[in-house]
Amino acid sequence: MPLYAFRCETCGPFEEWRPLSEYSKPAQCPRCQAGARRVVTPPNLVKTPPEIRKARALEEKSAHEPEVVGGPLPGRPFSRPHSLHSPPWTVSH
Ligand SMILES: [Zn+2]
User: Fold this and answer.
1) Is the pLDDT of residue 31 over 70?
2) What is the pLDDT of residues 61-92, one digit of tens each?
3) Mean pLDDT of the region 14-23
């Protein structure tokens, strides 16, 4: 039985387990018993307020920005210039 997200006009969003046969039927709000409409938002996102989701998205963006702008990555192995590294075939006897 899938978990669906609904929104009550008075109480806000809530989640309810519903059989597939009642997929399109309106749910009843557990608090005020009013009819609630199903929302398309996935159930795991309902509990996260939009402003927090926005802040998280901004954090992620700024965290990734330095890598995109340029410069060597912190964890990147140091690559030596070729002049300091002699390949075996150039060694003279
Ligand atoms: Zn309600």
Assistant:
1) yes
2) 776 665 555 556 666 666 666 566 666 776 66
3) 85
Residue 24: inside a domain: yes
CA of 48 to the centre of ligand 1 (A): 19
- Number of other CB atoms surrounding residue 6 within 10 Å: 22
- Which residues touch 42 (CB under 8 Å, ≥6 apart)? 5
- Rounded to the nearest angstrom, the distance between the alpha carbon of 36 and the centre of ligand 1 is 7
Report CA-CA distances (Å) from 5 to 34, 35, 54, 55, 79: 15, 13, 20, 23, 52
- Structural domain of residue 48, as residue ranges? 1-62
The CA 35 to ligand 1 mean position distance, Å, reads: 8
Gap from CA of 61 to ligand 1 centroid (Å): 36
Examine residue 81 and state whether it is found in any structural domain, yes or no.
Answer: no
